[in-house]
Amino acid sequence: MMTAIIETSGLTRSYGDICALKPLDLCVPEGEWLTVMGHSGSGKSTLLNLLGGLDRPSGGSITVRGTDLATLSEDGLARFRRDCVGIIFQQHHLIPYLTALENVMMSQYFHSVPDEAEARHALERVGLGHRLKNRPGELSGGEQQRVCIARAIINSPRLLLGDEPTGNLDHKSTTMVMELLRELRDEDRFSIVMVTHNQEVAAWGDRTIHMDDGCLVREERTKGC
Ligand code: ADP
Ligand code: MG
What we know:
The chain is built from 7 helices and 10 strands. The protein is α/β, with parallel strands linked by helices.
């Protein structure tokens, strides 16, 4: 039987008068790579933030790995973010005065205890074993995003969320990042929900949902390269 990692029912989010997410029923099977597309302002980030426990719904339910996020306290939600999800954004949000290795270790610090060997291994997995001691400003955009991926996977999340993670990258770096994500997903078996504007990026996923004005308007299977 298919197990769902994400199930939402009538999920909504409003900001005052603005209904950013209209009642959404969504089921994401364990292991799926789901792409979210849509115009700017269509509610993609709103959805992703709810899935990552960065925000709370206005209505409906949202269950991730069997936990109803609406029932969690602030501490419970923080634990959920720490233990279950890894997030990659368009901007890298790396700490400029820390090295690549230290940036990854920061994430371990908030989860449990920093472990330099493990952090080094994560950076080796993303092909940055030779850039451990470099600060973000000394890395290319693609390399910075790879540090973010190492940081996102270091605590073995079951769900990886990406909000336009390749939005600032050129074609070559985008392809490298996507290949890397596929490799890591195949090894670690996590699920992915990724927002993108790029058709090529969407082609790496298993399924694409299209959003418009806060609604899921269409979905399609993709080949999942
Ligand atoms: P997308 O990621 O698809 O570009 P968003 O989810 O960021 O869209 O935004 C959806 C709608 O909700 C937009 O109209 C946006 O202005 C509004 N919105 C998003 N976040 C907030 C917020 N924190 N406060 C007020 N309005 C917001
Ligand atoms: Mg957005």
